[in-house]
Design a protein that fits this description.
88 residues, mainly alpha, Cyclin A, domain 1, 6 helices, 73% helix, globular
């Protein structure tokens, strides 16, 4: 739904789905999806900006940044990002 508007590939969407499995508890699902898309796009070398995601998804960029920060602190999520980078 949001992928075409953001111009991201199916690979990024698949990676975002995998990353979203490690969302911290209490995170708004839409904000979590945006954070997962951002992290997956960064991992795949696609330069997607946080404010673009926030605008398309109808969320605040401040909320998005907070969830991204929480996810980066999550050891499980970091493992997903590291293992994906090793596969490149």
């Amino acid at each position: 739904m949001f992928a075409p508007k953001l111009g991201i590939s199916e690979k990024i969407v698949r990676d975002a789905l995998q990353i979203s499995e490690s969302l911290p508890q209490g995170v708004n699902p839409i904000v979590g999806a945006g954070a997962s898309l951002y992290l997956a796009s960064q991992k795949n070398g696609h330069k997607l900006r946080q404010f673009e995601i926030a605008e398309v998804m109808g969320i605040t960029d401040e909320g998005l940044r907070l969830v991204i920060k929480r996810m980066k602190q999550n050891k499980v999520m970091n493992g997903l990002l590291l293992s994906a980078e090793e596969k490149r």
